[in-house]
């Protein structure tokens, strides 16, 4: 995609650091240099305002990646692209689900969001398909999210850390840059099950297991 767009040696491409490394690796394979931008804290997608601050004379393109069922702000990115003469490329990302499956996931997500306590539930923005139901487990100097996840798994609730290490902290991409929202999200996010096939009893088990762990989330003094 990058080569077809004419991006190559000497160019910079702005990409998100929150997610997998494939996008940055594709930039390197095209001969260009990845420049990491921060994310919006509610959508986990690349933030146009931070992209604007990352533009240089060498910037040729920005890559938008949709995350967890949130859509990246393509309108904001395209406006930025028009102002600076940049290509705005859209990474295919997560596979699309059927209408019925998305509708059922939204029903399950609404059930969880109305009942979960102690975690920050996702912002249900228009168009959110809930490919993953990602909550925030606030940290307080201890690995609260990881402890929370271990206990949930012990209670039979499947959960996963969606992004363990931001790309700009991985070997080969170690850049000394400040991406506070990306760093915070990597330390706090946890994906809870929300599959369309889940029963109400299974959803209740998720709620009960999470809400019973409120003590783990109390601030340290």
UniProtKB/TrEMBL annotation:
Q: Which InterPro entries match?
A: DegT/StrS_aminotransferase (IPR000653), PyrdxlP-dep_Trfase (IPR015424), PyrdxlP-dep_Trfase_major (IPR015421), PyrdxlP-dep_Trfase_small (IPR015422)
This protein's record includes keyword Mitochondrion: no
The cofactor required is: pyridoxal 5'-phosphate
Q: Does the keyword Transferase apply?
A: yes
UniProt keyword annotations, A-Z: Aminotransferase, Pyridoxal phosphate, Transferase
Any one GO molecular function term: transaminase activity
Family the entry assigns: Belongs to the DegT/DnrJ/EryC1 family. L-glutamine:2-deoxy-scyllo-inosose/scyllo-inosose aminotransferase subfamily.
Q: What is this protein called?
A: DegT/DnrJ/EryC1/StrS family aminotransferase
